[in-house]
Design goal:
By secondary structure, this protein is α/β, with parallel strands linked by helices. Helices cover about 40% and strands about 15% of the residues. It has five helices and seven strands; from the N terminus they run E-E-H-E-H-E-H-E-H-E-E-H. It has a five-stranded mixed beta sheet with strand order 5-4-3-6-7. Helix 3 links the parallel strand 4 and strand 5.
Length: about 200
């Protein structure tokens, strides 16, 4: 402690800064929260608007095995650029939002949309059980047991879907479950554009 003029002690400068640091952090968080609320009120805040560095770039390649115990074939990076748009869907059997999204994937598959799946950090038996129960929309399916492809794609979680054009360029990304309004408002115009 430092002695001051009248025998009073004052905390050293480093300690004073440490005492004020939590207040500064709280103030910064409060300003961020206020900005988010303001954006929600005027419609400029999009909670799904997490940018992707992949948009407009070739999809990252990977060499992953097919999911064991399923008759669905695997695929490699060359299949992602084999003409026509491809939806690449990261999913898992343990993922509750994946159950919510699944009817949209099944509907897209019935319409002839090419769907490839990446089973993310899952057990093959659990993935097979999920698809037996809910249906298998995937024309090809691989297992990303360690999550390395997820890292390459900048995955925030599952489900997450990417639209690739016929040359394998990433044109769209959707983080979270696709709902019917997502498919009609966001995805369908892009499928027509890149068909």
């Amino acid at each position: 402690m430092e002695e001051t003029g009248a025998g009073k002690s004052r905390a050293p400068l480093g300690r004073r800064v440490l005492l004020w640091a939590p207040l500064g952090l709280a103030a910064g968080a409060g300003v961020g929260f206020w900005a988010m609320l303001r954006g929600m009120r005027d419609g400029s805040y999009d909670p799904r608007g997490v940018p992707s560095a992949l948009l407009g770039k070739p999809a990252p390649g990977f060499a992953l095995p097919a999911v064991q115990g399923l008759s669905t074939p695997g695929f490699g990076p060359e299949a992602l650029a084999a003409g026509g748009p491809v939806l690449l869907n990261f999913w898992a059997s343990w993922c509750v939002p994946c159950v919510v999204e699944h009817p949209q994937l099944m509907a897209l598959q019935r319409r002839g949309v090419k769907l490839f799946g990446v089973n993310y950090k899952d057990k093959p038996a659990d993935a097979a059980r999920f698809l037996a129960q809910h249906g298998n929309p995937f024309g090809a399916l691989v297992a990303d047991a360690e999550g390395r492809a997820g890292i390459d794609y900048g995955l925030y979680g599952v489900p997450e879907t990417y639209l690739l054009d016929g040359r394998g360029i990433v044109r769209w990304r959707w983080a979270g479950p696709m709902m019917p309004d997502t498919v009609s408002a966001e995805l369908e115009p892009l499928l027509r554009r890149y068909a």
